[in-house]
Amino acid sequence: MKKVSVRRTISIAFMLMVGLFMVNSFAFAQVKPKIAILATGGTIAGVGQSEVGSAYKSGAITVDKLLAAVPQINNIATVQGEQVVQIGSQDMNDMVWLKLAKRINELAKTDVQAFVITHGTDTQEETAYFLNLVLKTDKPVVLVGAMRASTAISADGPKNLYDAVSCAIDPTSKGRGVMIIMNDKILGADDVTKTMTTAVETFACPNYGPLGIMYNGKPMYTRTSMKKHTVKSEFSVDNLSELPRVEIIYGYSNVTPLFVDAAVKAGVKGIVYAGVGNGNPSTTLQDALVSARKSGIAIVRSSRVFSGPTSQFDEVDDEKCEFAASWYKNPQKARVLLMLALTKTDNYKEIQRMFIEY
Ligand code: ASP
Questions:
Q1: Pfam families from the xrefs (predicted)?
Q2: pLDDT at position 18, please?
Q3: Protein residues whose CB sits closer than 6 Å to any atom of ligand 1
Q4: What is the pLDDT of residues 311-353, one digit of tens each?
Q5: 288 C-alpha to center of ligand 1: Å?
Q6: Helix, strand, or coil here: 77?
Q7: What domains, with CATH codes, occur in the chain?
Q8: What are the tens digits of pLDDT across the range 36-65?
Q9: Predicted pLDDT at 1
Q10: 251: buried, middle or exposed (CB in 10 Å: 19+, 13-18, 0-12)?
Q11: Which of 89, 92, 118, 195 gets mutated to test ligand 1 (max ligand atoms within 8 A of its CB)?
């Protein structure tokens, strides 16, 4: 009799423990945030001809293989992977931007809590800034890449990808605008740029500094972007099937109007002039830009100089020429903003306002 009741007590206790364990595991599975990883290619998905050599093919492996290389991600998030395109980011284009932005806006209305986009580093800053201006969500959106192919010794992709997911699922990452995670740094889309052609430590925010760092798998923020973005942005891709054509023209000694004339002939809607110094054009170039403006083309002055503002009220009379100055936007980001500005207006004063606010 005694033996039976001891047995029964043990089996009830055992069943209770199993039950508790199951409830706990279920609860744990429930709390893992759901994240979408949208893959576009790049060196992070690159495959090399050797483990040390530099020859490799960008965007060679798919999102499933990328994720399989970092199984630790499954411990912190429930992942849904999507292959949007599979390209080197030198081939990134407006159509992919529109597709990506529309897809994220759509997924943002579901229970997906955060987004990571794997991307080549060459044009990563442009995609990040475009999305920063058109996504209608305050859910975290993080772009990530790598400087070394996935097959290289000490590939930087797996750690960057893990950090990107950790950053994206962290509650403190909400509402900060689109970010790039590379080499332990959290970089804001409005300022981040690639600064070295081959180094792992290549991304920086030369004007405002990084938003923070990744430390032991946690984002530690030290700054908030002061520029308008995402839910506060006036730009939208909802009714867009293409973007207005804007070209960048580079400044240098002895520059001629050749490329401005060619751009006018090609029917561009806007020109970003990557001028010398504080976005200065030569006298002949300025004349060509003024006549382009008179024919209805929007002109934004930016600078080929790495950092600092391209400011109004300096050597160029922007009011008289009807130009806008790009302030802290480098030429490639100025192009992104000018394309979106032109979906709304071609008034240079309005365009100037946008360059101050975004
Ligand atoms: N060309 C590559 C790309 O941008 C370089 C990289 O990812 O680092 O796709």
A1: Asparaginase (PF00710), Asparaginase_C (PF17763)
A2: 54
A3: 42-43, 58, 88-90, 120-122, 145, 147
A4: 999 999 999 999 999 999 999 999 999 999 999 999 999 999 9
A5: 35
A6: coil
A7: 32-232 (3.40.50.1170), 246-357 (3.40.50.40)
A8: 999 999 999 999 987 876 789 999 999 999
A9: 46
A10: buried
A11: 89
Ligand 1 atom nearest residue 42's Cα:
9
Which tens digit of pLDDT belongs to each residue from 294-311? Answer: 999 999 999 999 999 999
Q: How far is the CA of 90 from the centre of ligand 1 (A)?
A: 7
- Say how many Å lie between the CA of residue 97 and the centre of ligand 1: 16
For residue 215, give both structure tokens: 């430390």
- Write out the two tokens for 46: 């690159």
User: Which parts are annotated binding residues for substrate?
Assistant: 89, 121-122
Kindly give the number of the ligand 1 atom that is closest to the alpha carbon of 41.
Answer: 9
Pocket test residue of 44, 90, 203 for ligand 1, highest count of atoms within 8 A of CB: 90
Closest ligand 1 atom to 59 CA: 9
Q: Compute, in angstroms, the gap from residue 257 CA to the centroid of ligand 1.
A: 32
pLDDT, average across residues 122-126: 98
Judged against a pLDDT cut of 70, whether residue 184 lies above it is answered with: yes
Give the C-alpha separation, 139 to 149, whole Å.
29
Burial 147-172 (b: 16+ CB within 10 A, else e): bbbbebeebbbbbbbbbbbbbbbbee
pLDDT for 31: 83
What 3-state class would DSSP assign to 267? coil
Q: Whose CA is nearest to atom 1 of ligand 1?
A: 88
Output the average pLDDT for the chain.
94
Which amino acid is present at 95?
Answer: M
pLDDT number for residue 293: 98
Q: Is 41 left (phi over 0), alpha (psi -120 to 50) or beta?
A: left
Residue nearest to atom 3 of ligand 1 (CA): 120
| % of the chain surpassing 90 pLDDT | 89
Please state, in angstroms and as integers, the Cα–Cα distance from residue 310 to each residue in 205, 251, 266, 274, 336, following that order. 16, 14, 27, 10, 16
- Residues identified as active-site: 43
Q: Is 60 exceeded by the pLDDT of residue 27? A: no
Residue 111 pLDDT grade (very low, low, confident, very high; cuts 50, 70, 90): very high
> Which ligand 1 atom sits closest to the C-alpha of 146?
8
- Region 63-69: mean pLDDT is 94
